[in-house]
Amino acid sequence: MDIAFIDNVLFATVRTATPLLLVALGVMISERSGVLNLGQEGMVLVGAALAFIAAYVTGNMGWGIIAGAFAGMLVSVLFAFIALSLMANQVATGLALTIFGTGLSAFVGADYVGQSIAGLSPISIPLLSSIPFIGKAFFAQDIMVYLSFCLFGGLWWLMRATRLGLIIRSVGENPEAAHALGYPVRKIRYCAVLFGGAMAGLAGAYLSLAYTPMWSEGIAAGRGWIALALVVFASWRANRVLFGAWLFGFASILHLLLQGYGYAISPNLLAMLPYLVTIIVLVIMMQRKQGGSDAPRSLGRPFSPSR
Amino acid sequence: MRLELLGLSKRYPGCVANDAVSLKVEAGEIHAILGENGAGKSTLMKMIYGVVKPDEGQMLWNNKEVEIKGPAHARQLGMGMVFQHFSLFETLTVAENIALYLDPSELGSMAALRQHIEQVANEYGLAINPDRKVGSLSVGEQQRVEIIRCLIQDIQLLILDEPTAVLTPAEAEHLIKVLKQLAAKGCSILFISHKLHEVNALCDRATVLRAGKVTGSCVPRDTSPAEMARLMLGDGLTLTKAFEPGPSGDVLLQLKDIEVPPTDHFAIHLRQLNLSLRRGEIIGLAGVAGNGQDELVDLLNGELSATKGQVLLAGEPIQRLGVQQRRHKGMAVVPADRIGRGAVATMSLSENNLLTGCITHGAKAGLIDWKVVSARAERIISHYKVKTSGKTEMAGSLSGGNLQKFILGREIEQAPQVLVCFHPTWGVDVGAANLIHQQLIKLRDQGAAILLLSEDLDELYLLSDRLGALCAGQLSPVAPKSEVSLERLGQWMAGQFDAQHDKETCHAD
């Protein structure tokens, strides 16, 4: 096992982790504000389809990324309206959104199946990218990976050190009290949901523009769902979300490697590996923490300011 | 004039919460709002503070007409409010909770805020650690956080919704001192309370509400508590005298050398508990909140298990039995926490009745007989004067006191052999408390044994046959009421158990 090999494994790990990280950070914010949106998978798919179409039609990757994020956000507006304004059950609304997003993305993407684009090209940062082991993984990626790093850093800081982060947490913890203090609970939740939608859309854009630069039905392959689980097991903390995403990425690569080395294990069983490993490790981490769960107390509970 | 209300009204579907309420509060005045549960006091306070918008009426603030757009606006004007159900965020720290309350422009660094909190805390003697998570604080400490949160700004009006209902006598006394100190500085105070002697001791003026209307006002200093109660209730009800102790029989519930180690950092270690509760008697246990009452109730209910010692029900060890099994054997527990422990907020009163009632009635072979269940719920509602739109109303939409009446009714109606009740009249108005007291005595006279945990000393002296106190997880001696002076009980509550008790514990060793 030489340096270049490890370089490549880490490089692929970070790439695989990126879409998961993007969705999960969005989920984290919306759940911290108390909204449980199970429509992640649908939003990722719509984001992926529209990002691909926009990039294909305009020939410009930038427009693709923007279209992906925007599409995810638009779909989340639907969720926000039904779940927050009409106060429908969030679980049912989210599930419906996933089904809706799956169908919508298949419909708008139908004509683009089998088309291909060049894909996002990596940008190597001079010097840094030649650091052994980690250089390639962290400094020779494409623009969206860098964007995901920035978003991670920004959100980690937001939730940890800013007043806005505190307000988001307070809304998810006790919306009645936040309302009594004069915070616009519904507006904050709307913003959090829309942000989550944009993040899911970005994850979709990464899948169809960079990870596998093409559109095919169901390209999200359950990443929306695993992100939802990841956030729970990561106790709604950004650093653990990042760790979990990388773990998932690494296990995904591991399963390819194991297959490549010809281990006599069914590839279908190996394909379960990333999901299993990620969940088991995070569950163990969660167990070790004392004092109960950090779940936002009002997660999934509708709030009406007029009460 | 600090605050003047002119004809404020608020209607909800099916009820008028406030009907043309007018009142005046001068600068530096401590003004009490009196009224039964459901009289509309909380709604009125919420309208003043901008949480609820009035349907009609005018409000003058420092002689100028204002329309409060929301709580943030009210705060800007210089109002602060301490809610009945605290508006705190349990998973956040004290400092974070206070930071959320402040305007971004007033909020400097967290370090500066911490200093400011400690400064205010010292000034008023409200000790608090700014870095503790609010969820880990006792109820009294949480209220401190709410008060500090208001005082950290310069305020001109402080609204307190039943502030002493959750406090121990010592804490309540301290709060009264703090409020007097504040009023002396010119801050007006609106004070909702059920405890008439407190209103007497503290307030300059009182306005009485009944069914959403102002039915009178008085100067508490010149008015006896009995008279104020009459104004509130309107039916000439008088405060009851102490009940006579009844004849007691054989031991029904016995604790022998109980030892319960704490389950987390904030739990109290119960040590060397010995207690014999006899048929036909009420033992009252006093104690400052957080001295093991929660743990004792959990232990008796079967939620906590002792590492040492025995719990005997009519001579039979029950420490290994679960909650339901104990109930089948005739134990009933009324927890302090009405929503969450005592009732399910989103279930109807009928269904809530069935939760524990199914043991004695309404369910056969796993099938529910709704006729019986409904009839029982209706009986409890009418018998215990629960103010509700009917048996199908959700438990969560009842006011605290009304729900308490229902829960107590539910347990008493099952005619338990042993009843453990924790704060039976917490937040309950005078009329309903009276009723609850009479029902408890009736149950005792029927031969039940009752363990009463309360922080209301009047109630303890009123009901108990024997009295004791819990302090730091240890039990004082339990002696007949006539032998326990208020002073002695106070010493017990502070952990100064006398020599006689020392002998007893030595004996137990």
From TrEMBL, chain A:
Record keyword Membrane present: yes
Keywords noted in UniProt: Cell membrane, Membrane, Transmembrane, Transmembrane helix
Molecular function GO terms recorded: transmembrane transporter activity
GO cellular component: plasma membrane
Cell location: Cell inner membrane
A Pfam family assignment: BPD_transp_2
Domain of life (superkingdom): Bacteria
Regions crossing the membrane: 12-30, 42-59, 65-88, 95-118, 138-159, 190-212, 218-236, 243-263, 269-287
Membrane topology recorded in Swiss-Prot or TrEMBL: Multi-pass membrane protein
Thylakoid found in the keyword field: no
Major site of localization recorded for this protein: membrane
PANTHER family the record matches: ABC TRANSPORTER PERMEASE PROTEIN (PTHR43370:SF2), SUGAR ABC TRANSPORTER INTEGRAL MEMBRANE PROTEIN-RELATED (PTHR43370)
Protein name listed in UniProt: ABC transporter permease
Organism whose genome encodes this protein: Neiella marina
From TrEMBL, chain B:
Keyword flag Cell membrane: yes
Classification via PROSITE patterns: ABC_TRANSPORTER_1, ABC_TRANSPORTER_2
Subcellular location: Cell membrane
SMART domains tied to this protein: AAA (SM00382)
Main subcellular localisation: membrane
GO molecular function, one term: ATP binding
Keyword tags: ATP-binding, Cell membrane, Membrane, Nucleotide-binding, Repeat, Sugar transport, Translocase, Transport
Matches recorded under SUPFAM superfamilies: P-loop containing nucleoside triphosphate hydrolases
Cellular component terms (Gene Ontology): plasma membrane
Domain ABC transporter: 3-236, 253-497
Protein's name according to its UniProt entry: ABC transporter ATP-binding protein
